[in-house]
Amino acid sequence: MNARYALPVLLLICGLAQGADNYVGTAAIDAEIAQARQAALADAEAQAAEQEGMQIRSDTTQEGDQITLHTGPTPRLRVIEEWRDGDLYHVRAERDGANGGCGPQYRKRIAATAFPLLHPDQVYSNGIHGFEVGIPHELLHRLAASGNFLSRGVEAITLYDANALAPEGISQGSYGRSRLLEHADRVGADLILSGVVRDLGLEVSRFQLPYVGRIGSSDRRVEIDLFIHDGHTGALLLRHHYAEEASGEVMLDRQIPFASAAFYRTDLGHSFDAIFDRAVQEVQERLHCLPFTARVLRVSGDEVVIDAGADTRIQVGDELIAHATRRDQLFDSGARSRGPEREPQGSVQVVDVQADYSVAQLNGATALNRLQAGDLVSTR
After folding, report:
1. Fewer C-beta neighbours within 10 Å, C or N terminus of the chain?
2. Hey, what domains does the chain have and what are their CATH numbers?
3. How does pLDDT run across 104-140, given as a tens digit for each residue?
C-alpha cells in the first residue's frame, strides 16, 4: 500500500552555545584543493550548528518503504581566512549576520597623528613624557588587537592650525588639499585618528595634622579629545571627550615610559587605561557598519587593481561599487573642501587576492572609460 504523509519534526541540536564568533573547518586534500575547501567549509558549518545549539525544523516524508528527511537550511557562514597545512586544508568562517547585519566585515586601515598638549607646562616638570605619540600608539595597538583594524602607524605631526580649536581648522597641504587627506593617501589609510590633550593639571594639597605632621595628597585630571576622520573624504566620523580623575601616584619618575607595565601600575596609569578601554569600545561600536573603501591603483582593460589585499579580509567573489573622481570639489557649510565629488560607475567583482592588493573584474554595465587610478571602490 502506498501511503504518503508529512510529519513535522523538530530537531534540537543540543551542543552548548559557546558564544564563538567563528569556526575552523578542516578537510584532507585528496585530489583538488577546491574539493577540500568545500569539505572544510562543510565541517565549519557542522561545528556552527553543533556549538550554537541551532534549532532546525524539518519534514519527514514517507512513500512506501522509503523515508526521506528534509532538513532546514545549513548555517550560512562567510570565510574570513583559509590556509593549507601539509595534506590538510583549513578555513576559518563566521556566521552570516554575526557582525550585526552590516554585511561582510573588512579590516579597516587606520593611521594616527600626535596628540598635542594644550598646556605643556603641566607635565614637563613632573615626570610625564612621551604621551604625544604614546597615546595614539596605544590606541592603534588596542584597535589592531581587536582584529577589526589594521594599523598604519603614528606620525609625530599635527593636523590643525590651532590645536585648541580642533577638530576645526585642519591645515592645508600642497595645492590647497587637506593635510589630512594627503596623509591618508601617503600611508594608505581609510581612517585618521587624531586628538588633543586638553588637561593634565596637577593639584597638590598639604595640611598639618596634630601628632602626625605635615602631609599631602596629589591629584591629576586627565582630559582628552579624540577625533576620527574618513581618510577618503575628510569627513569627521567620531568626536568624543574623555575625562578621568587620578589621585595618589600621579607624579612619575622620568624613567617610567608612557604606556609601559610600570606606568599602568600607577594611579595615573589606571586613569589612562580606563580612557583607552572606553575609547576603543566606542570606536568599534560607532564604526562597525562603516562601508569599506579601497583606492584604485591601476585600470588595465577590464581589470581594476585596488590597494586592499588579504589582510583586509577581502575575498574572491566580493562585489564592490566603483566610484569615479570628478574635478568638482565638495564643500561643507563653512566652505571647507571635503574632497573631490565621486560618481558611482557600476560594480566590480574581485577575481584575485594577493597579500597587499587585489584584482577586480569590471561588470558589463560599469563605465570603463570613467575609471582611473585614484578612484575608489567601496562596499554597498
Report:
1. N
2. 4-95 (no CATH), 108-287 (3.40.50.10610), 293-378 (2.40.10.410)
3. 689 999 999 999 999 988 876 566 788 999 999 999 9
